[in-house]
Amino acid sequence: MKFTAHQIAGILEGDIVGNPDVEVSKLSKIEEGTIGSLTFLSNPKYKPFIYSTKASITIVNKDFQSENDISTTLIKVEDAYKAFSTLLEYYNQVKLNKHGIEQPSFISESAKLGKDVYIGAFSYIGNNVILGDNVKIFPSSHIGDNVVIGDNTVVFSGAQIYSDCIIGKNCVINSGVIIGADGFGFAPNEKGEYNKVPQTGNVILEDYVDVGAATTIDRATLGSTVIRRGVKLDNQIQIAHNVEIGKNTVIAAQTGIAGSTKIGENCQIGGQVGIVGHITIGNNVKIQAQSGISRNVKDNEVLQGSPALSYGDYNKSYVHFKNLPKIVKEINDLEKKINGNS
Q1: Of 38, 159, 163, 178, which residue is least crowded by CB atoms under 10 Å?
Q2: Which SUPFAM superfamilies does the annotation name (predicted)?
């Protein structure tokens, strides 16, 4: 896939300084630029590299002034960093712009497909599935019976969406994600064995939800496990049955959330956080990595530690934690002096 400087300048509404017909087919860091690559300069620290880069095109701020000869073609824009991000988004859209149904794949006769749908090879589309317009199902994915997927959602290779789940518009489901597996529900019997409790609910993802690779979201025992609009989930997260996560909350990798916990809006949860079940976490809460949450959390709290303390209390306590050997020695020395004087 090749683009000329003229085409890129058109997308970014930028001005060209250099050859408008030069072509690029890949992206690079400015210090690692090669012929045929596109890069950008926004951090002044990297300015010296613009005179040595071999990148064919470099996006720069409009106020950039060259102090030496350069070989790269410049595209001048208001904000080089934002422009490059816009270009990356455009590039992704073009790269993922697939249509049609590849074979072999299975699509139930009762499934309803929207316009411009893509279904990759070896995918399974179950009974009564509804796919909106421009939905992309990449190869080797499983879409169970009665699943609904909204417009413009992308399901990458190897994702599994179990029956009856509902996925909103403009969502991204990455490879290895499992949505709608049974919640972890077992009841002990008189023999000391465990009987499985049927999990009859589903999972609902609202619009603009991103789910990272190998993340699992369990179906509810009754009702729904709900991930609200704009939530962003990193890789390898476990979300148990009947959990609810409020809109625009972001959660980093390897976090585990136990059943029936409710998390508010606009929360930021670090990696490897453990959250017990049946608690409520308020809005705008920040939880530092590797914390353990075992109680209800009020709005706007910032927590760290296991069990978690307020962020300020944790830092004050840590000063004493790391000095414990010294403090114990001082106490022992005082005891010896006291005992020696008695």
Answers
A1: 163
A2: Trimeric LpxA-like enzymes
Alpha-carbon distance of 118 to 99, in angstroms, equals 4
The H or E element that residue 90 is part of is helix 80-95
Q: Which of 6, 99, 142, 241 is catalytic?
A: 241
Neighbours of 67 (CB within 10 A): 9
C-alpha distances out from residue 263 to 13, 35, 172, Å: 41, 49, 21
Whole-angstrom Cα distance, residue 87 to residue 187?
53
* Strands 210-211 vs 216-218: parallel, antiparallel or unpaired: unpaired
Q: How far is CA 65 from CA 8, 47, 335, in A?
A: 21, 10, 72
Residue 321 is predicted with a pLDDT of 73
Query: Would you say residue 105 has pLDDT above 90?
Result: yes
CA 171 to centroid of chain Cα atoms: 11
Nearest to 173 by CA among 130, 199, 143, 145: 143
The pLDDT confidence band at residue 97, using thresholds 50, 70 and 90, is confident
222 bridge partner residues: none
Structural domain spans, the chain: 3-95, 100-314
In this structure, is the dihedral angle defined by the CA atoms of residues 11, 15, 20 and 24, taken in order, positive or negative?
Answer: negative
Give dist(CA 81, CA 77) in Å, integer.
9
- Is 142 an annotated catalytic residue? no
Mean pLDDT over each residue of the chain, to the nearest integer: 93
Architecture, CATH, for domain 3-95: 3-Layer(aba) Sandwich (3.40)
Burial of 309 (0-12, 13-18, 19+ CB in 10 A): middle
In terms of CATH architecture, what is 100-314?
3 Solenoid (2.160)
Residue 179, token pair as written in the block: 């949505």
Angle between helices 80-95 and 5-12 (to 10 degrees): 110
User: CA–CA separation, 97 vs 88, rounded Å?
Assistant: 14
Provide the whole-model pTM. Answer: 0.82
Find tokens 């002096």 and name the residue.
337
Query: 113: closest CA among 83, 139, 143?
Result: 143
